[in-house]
Amino acid sequence: MARVQTTQSEGVGRSAASADPLRGVALMFASTVLFAAMHTMIRHVSDELHAFEIAFFRTLFGLIFVLPWFLRLGLQPLRTRHLPMHVLRALFNVVAMLAFFYALTQIPLAEVTALGFTAPIFAALLAGLILHEHVHARRWIAIGTGFLGVVLVLRPGFEAIGIGQLMVLVSSVAWACALMTIKRLGETDSSITIITYMSLLMIPLSFGPAAMVWQWPSLELLAWLMVIGLIGGAGQWLMTEALMHGDASMIMPVDFCKLPWTALFGYLAFSQVPDLFTFLGGAVIFASTTYLALRERAARRPAVEG
Fold first, then answer.
1. Separation CA 163–CA 100 (nearest Å)
2. Average pLDDT of 297-302?
3. What span, in angstroms and rounded, lies between the C-alpha atoms of 258 and 110?
């Protein structure tokens, strides 16, 4: 069935006519640069602050990015009929962020990024389990191929699998759940509304874990944390807006650009040199997720065009 996007009376919904796939690709590409830069900064400040506290400040300062919307639109961004789904999305995001930030402090940035590409694979699995979508043999093959890429990155038996790698996979499962809620919310709510609720709800949700490891940051660290929050907020908005402008089959593959960007920043900042298996496994995971997206688009096309 074709996705129907309805414009709310308050004017914050997006109609299908406003979609612009090329703009979506460009926005997604820009988001990959910002996210790679943010991950590099997180690794930098993690020498002095715990990852959970960094995650809290990322959500806190990320709120600065959405404040101008309130000055321009008033309370309009808060108008929604799906508050429980926004809360659920925020919970998924908090788990994904805490696990991912912790992983960034434990293993090379490029390895975190490569394993992070598993989110669409987990989303395909969850779509069958939760949404009861029929998973055809080709999709199972693609899912299996994606997990083969995970094996190439992890190389169990040859390399030790530590808490960092496991946390990336936990983050991917949580992010897969968040992606499903984002797509559902995108049918009725604007990207501004989605990000506003995410920013507001994640602050109290992330404070609890941060309080357990709390230490007051210096002024210099606060400056770094503010930049992390602003860049993260901008990247989140670009990614959400990109998904509004085109099919996931066209937009999501651009996310693979995070791997070379992260590898470059990791090398320049920390002299991290990813091995061949990280790129090879990341490419296999990327290929499987791209195939899954293309199959989903092909399955929906008859309903859209008919």
1. 11
2. 56
3. 9
DSSP code of residue 105:
T
Give the chain's end-to-end CA distance (angstroms, integer).
Answer: 10
Q: Report how far residue 216's alpha carbon sits from residue 118's, in angstroms, rounded to the nearest whole number.
A: 35
Find which of 128-142, 145-159, 183-197, 253-267 is predicted with most confidence, using mean pLDDT: 253-267
**Quick one: tokens of 243?**
């998904």
| Structure letter (DSSP) for residue 218 | P
The residue count of the chain comes to 306
In the three-class reduction of DSSP (H, G, I as helix; E, B as strand; rest coil), residue 198 is classed as helix
Q: How far is residue 251's CA from residue 289's CA, in Å, rounded to a whole number?
A: 12
Residues 241, 236: Cα–Cα separation, whole Å: 8
304 DSSP 8-state letter: H
Q: Return the residue matching tokens 């940051």.
A: 217
User: Residue 95: pLDDT band by 50, 70, 90 thresholds?
Assistant: very high
Q: How far apart are the C-alpha atoms of 25 and 270, rounded to whole Å?
A: 30
